[in-house]
Amino acid sequence: MSWLGKLGFGTRSPTEPSMDSSSSSIAQGPDNDIPAPGQQFAQFGAGCFWGVELVFQRVPGVTKTEVGYTQGFIHKPTYEDVCSGTTNHSEVVRVQYDPKECSFESLLDAFWARHDPTTLNRQIELLCR
């Protein structure tokens, strides 16, 4: 596999599952959950969700963070599945925030201050303060 393939670019091999939604066990619709009253959701992906989650937990106005996976070829992947690089999932953090205390722009500022998409595997850079 080429280095681009290892990063998730390129075509799928014939052994990978079809993306035909009629035969997929992956949920095809939107999440059914909603944010708490007066809150909003935002979702960010940056290679490894642990560092990204910590960044958002420190932003005033963020009331909840959740980590998980999005996209991909298998239903309910494990951490090991995703780390294998074969499922095409992205690690993401979903942030629940109070827009009266924290703007979406401030979430973007926190994200881009810590994330450089040109780094290998698009990992977040952790800065200790």
Automatic annotation (TrEMBL):
Q: Which domain of life is it from?
A: Eukaryota
Q: Give the EC class as a word.
A: oxidoreductase
Stretch list, region Disordered: 9-37
- Give the EC number(s) listed in the UniProt record: 1.8.4.11
Family matches, as Pfam families: PMSR
Q: Which SUPFAM superfamilies does the UniProt entry name for this protein? A: Peptide methionine sulfoxide reductase
The Swiss-Prot or TrEMBL record annotates one GO molecular function as:
peptide-methionine (S)-S-oxide reductase activity
| Keywords from the named record | Oxidoreductase
Reaction(s) catalysed by this chain, per the record, are: [thioredoxin]-disulfide + L-methionine + H2O = L-methionine (S)-S-oxide + [thioredoxin]-dithiol; L-methionyl-[protein] + [thioredoxin]-disulfide + H2O = L-methionyl-(S)-S-oxide-[protein] + [thioredoxin]-dithiol
Domain (Peptide methionine sulphoxide reductase MsrA) ranges: 42-124
Q: Which family does it belong to?
A: Belongs to the MsrA Met sulfoxide reductase family.
What's the protein here called? Answer: peptide-methionine (S)-S-oxide reductase
Organism listed in the record: Ilex paraguariensis
Lineage, opening ranks: Eukaryota, Viridiplantae, Streptophyta, Embryophyta, Tracheophyta
